[in-house]
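2024-03-11 09:14:02 INFO worker-7 job=invfold-0412 stage=load source=structure_tokens
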């Protein structure tokens, strides 16, 4: 059987989609494209310019006019890809807590989704790609060859995020992280436009009782 040309991985925040996608893309020699960075980039640009994330019209105009480039990583500093706007590398800015807190709001806007989904689709249709997000198998690339939906309980996802932060030597409150995960789940899965859900033809994997290696081995076997 040939390898899937377009592979999509959707699922809730902190379910391990990016680590899995990155590893698969490396193994297959494919482009890894984490579509969440585009929503994060728009959110960061709105906040940086002093804009209001509740101003749907203003945020949408910005999303329609900004060119966000997502490229293979230029530095070995833990990044999955470079996020470039104009001449600026905003990769780490897109990971700031204020972006985490506001990105679900920005990604709920219909016009923002349409603007970014068409950029994502164009890149995805080139093929040889592992694309990660919330609506890739359902809306952006419904024709994908292999669709994975990676799930885990909110507690498990918050625990993994907490452990990552502590491992970096930073401070964190587990309860705050859990509350943030739950809030984003609620917004992502109840929004009116392309809410988070598994495609009918997706393979659903719950990773509560599986470690990252086990999930990877399983999906890698599915690909081959
Ligand atoms: O995966 P992430 O945490 O980087 O995603 C950031 C936000 O963007 C999150 O609120 C969900 C949203 N998102 C989306 O709505 N559709 C996508 N394809 C990717 C991300």
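2024-03-11 09:14:09 INFO worker-7 stage=emit residues=224
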């Amino acid at each position: 059987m040939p390898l899937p040309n377009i592979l999509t991985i959707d699922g809730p925040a902190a379910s391990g989609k990016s680590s899995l996608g990155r590893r698969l893309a490396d193994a297959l020699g494919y482009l890894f494209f984490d579509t969440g960075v585009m929503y994060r980039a728009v959110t960061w640009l709105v906040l940086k310019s002093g804009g209001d994330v509740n101003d749907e019209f203003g945020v949408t105009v910005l999303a329609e006019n900004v060119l966000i480039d997502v490229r293979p990583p230029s530095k070995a500093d833990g990044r999955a890809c470079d996020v470039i706007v104009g001449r600026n590398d905003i990769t780490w800015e897109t990971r700031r807590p204020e972006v985490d807190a506001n990105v679900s709001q920005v990604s709920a806007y219909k016009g923002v989704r349409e603007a970014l989904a068409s950029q994502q689709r164009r890149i995805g249709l080139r093929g040889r790609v592992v694309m990660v997000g919330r609506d890739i198998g359902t809306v952006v690339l419904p024709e994908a060859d292999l669709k994975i939906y990676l799930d885990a309980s909110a507690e498990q996802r918050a625990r993994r995020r907490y452990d990552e932060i502590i491992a970096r030597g930073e401070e964190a409150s587990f309860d705050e992280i859990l509350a943030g995960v739950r809030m984003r789940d609620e917004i992502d899965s109840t929004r009116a436009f392309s809410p988070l859900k598994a495609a009918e033809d997706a393979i659903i994997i719950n990773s509560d009782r599986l470690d990252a290696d086990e999930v990877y081995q399983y999906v890698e076997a599915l690909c081959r």
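2024-03-11 09:14:09 INFO worker-7 stage=report msg="The chain has one domain: 6-217."
2024-03-11 09:14:10 INFO worker-7 job finished
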